[in-house]
Specification:
Protein name: Tyrosine-type recombinase/integrase
GO molecular function: DNA binding
Family: Belongs to the 'phage' integrase family.
Organism: Vibrio astriarenae
Strand content: 5-15%
Number of strands: 8
CATH architecture of the largest domain: Orthogonal Bundle
Pfam families: Arm-DNA-bind_3, Phage_integrase
Shape: elongated
Largest sheet: 5 strands, mixed
Structural class: alpha+beta
Order of helices and strands: EHEEEEHHHHHHHHHEEEHHHHHHHH
Strand order of the largest sheet: 1-2-3-4-5
Distance between the termini: 99 Å
Length: 441
């Protein structure tokens, strides 16, 4: 099969993912450059290279990936590479020498430049790059920044990642590992010392902290002592189950008061898809009041004149409104994770109550905006055991008949399984019912 044709954007876009690597040649046009080829890989990637023989040896120089590198750019790079080779300069040798002195800081600069191209192409979000910059600056740069990658082997990589895990926990370990692997991949470094290191299984460390009914009462009492804007913000965190960053930056243009829903745009959502959140009655009361009190053309639901972003910001650390609310009731305890309450625990609390009260995993997954129901299932499926058990008990009793258990006996058993506050409520109801019957008699 002749793999030579005139390289154009449309022609290269039409190349389908091959079953094995296929090389195409740029020919047939006055603009074509002899030696310019495109390798179509089984992964779906399309890589421009320049190839020619020098002193009997076949040299192949990588130029870039299509479509990030355009046909015009690839041709210009191919001409430049041809000139270098004619002058005795081997770009591959230069790259090897550069890699030998390349530092982690250099690698991160390449990562940022590559990521910015992805942002322009709308493949990635600017907020993701911002998070990577913060992660690198706070947890990687001090120890790795000036180190040369050529001297950094797999054993050093394992030791470094163990240190991250010990000092900062599994979450920072996993995020750091993802960033470091991506830095090497985006720079096309052949040897990646982090390649064989696996992420820590988060399920082994997953938080299950939620607020009990009693704790909710304490929490609401403490919350009532805050300014109205903070009360409203925290209530919406609990009532909608959405992530902190989304609630803090909630815009009025996202709220459909008539249809009682909040549409979170794809640009803010982790799944990169727009997410529609149904608003319960209590949430609507808050939003309606805030809408009536909002200034003309006010952009944010929770505005802040002191914040450079225009809305209230993350206040979960010391001195913030979240710290005040939780500290009053003994739930601000960073050194005691079983006792400590985080903002994200409100999201888990709502989901937990929804599942345990009989709500489906599917509905809970949709509410939380999880991209895959298996994520929700891994975290919350075990919480529905009680409702499944109750249904199973009824089924077994029905199958086996009343000979094993009288109806009154089952009622007593059900009452015995109720929490204390539910028993007291039932007792009051029965007393009122009995008094009502007595009165009518």
């Amino acid at each position: 099969m002749d793999t030579g044709f005139n390289f154009t954007k449309r022609a290269l876009e039409s190349i389908e993912k091959p079953k094995r690597r296929t090389t195409y040649r740029d020919v047939g046009s006055s603009k074509s450059v002899q030696g310019l080829v495109l390798d179509a890989l089984v992964s779906g990637a399309k890589v421009f290279r320049y190839q020619r023989k020098v002193n009997g040896k076949n040299i192949k120089v990588k130029l870039g990936e299509f479509p990030t590198t355009t046909v015009e750019q690839a041709r210009e790079m191919a001409r430049s590479t041809a000139t270098d080779l004619a002058n005795g300069i081997n770009p591959n040798q230069q790259k090897r020498e550069a890699r030998e002195s390349q530092t982690f800081d250099d690698l991160f600069d390449i990562y940022v430049a590559s990521f910015e191209l992805d942002i322009k192409a709308k493949k990635r979000r600017a907020s993701s790059l911002k998070s990577s910059k913060t992660l690198y600056r706070l947890h990687l740069k001090a120890e790795l920044g000036k180190k040369t990658i050529n001297d950094f082997d797999a054993e050093k990589a394992r030791t470094f990642m163990q240190g991250i895990f010990t000092k900062n926990g599994y979450s920072k370990h996993n995020h750091s590992l993802t960033l470091l692997k991506s830095m090497f991949n985006r720079a096309y470094v052949e040897f990646n010392p982090f390649a064989k290191i696996s992420k820590v299984d988060e399920s082994l460390f997953r938080r299950e902290r939620t607020l009990s009914k009693e704790e909710l009462g304490q929490f609401f009492n403490s919350l009532s002592q805050e300014k109205q804007i903070y009360q409203d913000c925290i209530f919406l965190l609990l009532l909608t189950g959405q992530r902190k960053s989304m609630v803090l930056s909630m815009r009025w243009q996202e709220i459909d008061l008539d249809n009682r829903r909040w549409v979170i745009p794809a640009s803010k959502n982790k799944s990169k898809k727009a997410h529609s959140v149904p608003l319960p009655h209590e949430a609507m009361k808050i939003l309606t009041r805030r809408s009536n009190e909002a200034q003309l053309n006010q952009e944010f639901v929770f505005p802040s004149a002191r914040s450079h972003v225009g809305h209230i910001t993350d206040k979960s650390g010391k001195g913030g409104f979240w710290q005040r609310v939780t500290d009053r009731i003994g739930m601000y305890a960073p050194d005691n994770q079983e006792k400590h309450l985080t903002v994200h625990d409100l999201r888990r609390t709502l989901a937990t109550y929804q599942v345990t009260s009989g709500g489906s995993i599917q509905a809970t997954s949709k509410l939380l905006g999880h991209s895959n129901i298996s994520i929700t299932n891994d975290v919350y499926a075990h919480l529905s055991d009680d409702s499944v058990r109750e249904t199973l008990e009824n089924t077994v009793s029905y199958m086996l008949g009343d000979s094993l258990q009288t109806k009154l006996g089952r009622i007593k058993q059900d009452i015995d399984s109720l929490p204390i506050e539910a028993k007291q409520e039932l007792k009051s109801y029965i007393e009122e019912s009995v008094n009502s019957v007595t009165y009518r008699a």
